[in-house]
């Protein structure tokens, strides 16, 4: 009977053992550490199964493992039995499964998760989220680019899950989202305490081309380069350095975007308030060239007060020259105040007005009739330009080149660079024009030759050429032409061939033209005048005397 009971109990126990299912592979099971040896923990997972796990699987990144015999742990059962008859288990995989469950819930609830950056990979970093490994892109590390992530490695801190895919094992997290949220809260708190017009202290955090970012105690404000000083600031680094504490004024606060505009110059006196009193019109001052453009140069009269010297006011003589060839940056120059517009904060300055007008100087030193000398600077279709003192030019018109030659012919005798002498004939200071004459250097031969000669005068000329239409004659070096019709009163005697070259002939002056430099001469007019005179002296047409008698009497009277 006892034997039968024992068999029944054994059968019941055996059936009971069959009823208890062996844990399925690929699941998380509970176990107990029963021994630690050779860097491994031996874990009893029940069901007459033991497995081994490396101690490093119990450690968080950057930390030493904290395990002891008797600790209850959860492990992932990969296989029930290996070749040595041991269960194949993993603490990492168990932690990963546990972590994924926890992270999926946090992701669904949009909650933060805690993790530690433990490695660097291409494009970012790896983060341990308590067993699950996530990817932290480089752009999501901080609100600004991080050059050295060393201080962040191994540090437990909150992250925001941006994306996760359990099937692929991908998790993407962000540290920047946490910082921005914290900054937004802190920003709102700080901005709530600020008001436009407040003067506050801040620390320069960053400097850019257009300004500087100033930390006001948890919130940044932009200090634009134009609000740093009343004077021109080419780059913020001229007056600011990173880490420097500065006093600034809150100019504007945008409650929606939480942007703050700051200013430094607003805490200083505006120099434009005293400009009109300190710089009266036509007063001369010394300034420093701060900037040069195509249209002129900016000159600083004092910090915060700049004026523009327009290119047209830079030089009396250099008209089409870039301002950079007249002045240079940082050069000290004397300027005259020409105009002030305080509403537009503009001062118009003149550079040339501080120097005497060179045309005035020339007019004083070289009155009309003065002989000057200069180099031929340019040759044009209408004359020569001669370089004179103080970089000014005078012009010799074609008509003033020669008495004898046409201007187009005379100008062929000159070349650029030739040094010539000329006489000043006119100086127009307003039009900046100087007229010169080369032909008047030796005086006017025509005026000298015809001095005392007037219309009606009888002069003696010498025949120099015989032509079909008349004869060419010379009087004191001046050429003139007597037409055939003026050769005699008698039509039969109006023959040029009755004269010979070298003959002396008395002629009557019919015209003296100073402009064309011509004498109008006529033998016929002389004969008519003589006849008229003879008639008046020795008879009349009513006396009955013949013309031959009268002329005969006149000739005898002359004898």
Automatic annotation (TrEMBL):
It comes from the Bacteria. Residues 26-92, 110-176, 197-265, 282-352, 369-439, 456-524 form the S1 motif domain. One of its GO terms (biological process) is translation. SUPFAM superfamilies: Nucleic acid-binding proteins. Gene3D superfamilies: Nucleic acid-binding proteins. One of its GO terms (cellular component) is cytosolic small ribosomal subunit. Coiled coil: none annotated. It holds the Pfam family S1. The keyword Ribosomal protein applies. Keywords: Repeat, Ribonucleoprotein, Ribosomal protein, RNA-binding. Binds mRNA; thus facilitating recognition of the initiation point. It is needed to translate mRNA with a short Shine-Dalgarno (SD) purine-rich sequence. Belongs to the bacterial ribosomal protein bS1 family. This is 30S ribosomal protein S1. It comes from Actibacterium atlanticum.
């Amino acid at each position: 009977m006892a034997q039968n009971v024992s068999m029944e109990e054994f059968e019941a126990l055996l059936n009971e053992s069959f009823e208890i299912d062996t844990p399925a592979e690929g699941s998380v099971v509970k176990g107990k550490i029963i021994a630690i040896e050779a860097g491994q923990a031996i874990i009893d997972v029940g069901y007459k199964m033991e497995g081994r796990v490396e101690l490093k699987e119990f450690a968080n990144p950057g930390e030493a493992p904290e395990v002891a015999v008797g600790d209850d742990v959860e492990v992932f059962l990969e296989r029930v039995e290996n070749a040595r008859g041991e269960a194949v288990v993993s603490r990492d995989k168990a932690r990963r499964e546990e972590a994924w469950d926890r992270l999926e819930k946090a992701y669904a609830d949009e909650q933060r998760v805690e993790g530690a950056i433990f490695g660097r990979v291409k494009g970012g970093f790896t983060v341990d989220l308590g067993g699950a490994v996530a990817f932290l892109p480089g752009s999501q590390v901080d609100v600004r680019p991080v050059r050295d992530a060393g201080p962040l490695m191994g540090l437990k801190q909150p992250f925001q899950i941006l994306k996760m895919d359990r099937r692929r094992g991908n998790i993407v997290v962000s540290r920047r989202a946490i910082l921005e949220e914290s900054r937004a809260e802190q920003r709102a708190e700080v901005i709530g305490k600020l008001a436009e017009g407040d003067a506050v202290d801040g620390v320069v955090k960053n400097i850019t081309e257009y300004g500087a970012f100033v930390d006001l105690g948890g919130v940044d404000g932009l200090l634009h380069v134009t609000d740093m000083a009343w004077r021109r600031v080419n780059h913020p680094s001229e007056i600011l350095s990173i880490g420097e504490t500065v006093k600034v004024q809150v100019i504007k606060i945008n409650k929606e975007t939480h942007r703050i505009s700051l200013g430094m110059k607003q805490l200083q006196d505006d120099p434009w308030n005293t400009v009109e009193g300190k710089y009266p019109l036509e007063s001369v001052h010394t300034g420093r060239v701060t900037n040069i453009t195509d249209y002129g140069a900016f000159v600083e009269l004092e910090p915060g007060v700049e004026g523009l010297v327009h290119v047209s006011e830079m030089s009396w003589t250099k008209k089409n020259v870039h301002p950079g060839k007249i002045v240079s940056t940082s050069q000290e120059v004397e300027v005259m105040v020409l105009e002030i517009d305080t509403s537009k904060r503009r001062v118009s300055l003149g550079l040339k007005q501080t120097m005497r007008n060179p045309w005035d100087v020339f007019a004083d030193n070289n009155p009309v009739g003065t002989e000057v000398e200069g180099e031929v600077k340019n040759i044009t279709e209408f004359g020569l330009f001669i370089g004179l003192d103080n970089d000014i030019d005078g012009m010799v018109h074609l008509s003033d080149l020669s008495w004898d030659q046409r201007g187009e012919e005379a100008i062929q005798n000159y070349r650029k660079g030739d040094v010539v002498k000329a006489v000043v004939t006119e100086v127009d200071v307003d039009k900046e024009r100087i007229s010169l004459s080369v032909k008047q250097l030796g005086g006017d031969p025509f005026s000298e030759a015809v001095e005392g000669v007037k219309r009606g005068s009888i002069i003696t000329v010498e025949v120099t050429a015989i032509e079909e239409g008349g004869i060419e004659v010379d009087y004191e070096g001046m050429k003139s032409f007597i037409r055939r019709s003026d050769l005699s009163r008698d039509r039969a005697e109006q023959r040029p061939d009755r004269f010979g070259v070298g003959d002396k002939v008395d002629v009557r002056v019919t015209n003296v033209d100073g402009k064309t430099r011509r004498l109008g001469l006529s033998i016929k007019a002389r004969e008519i005048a003589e006849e008229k005179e003879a008639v008046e002296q020795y008879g009349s047409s009513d006396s009955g005397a013949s013309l031959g008698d009268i002329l005969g009497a006149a000739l005898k009277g002359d004898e």
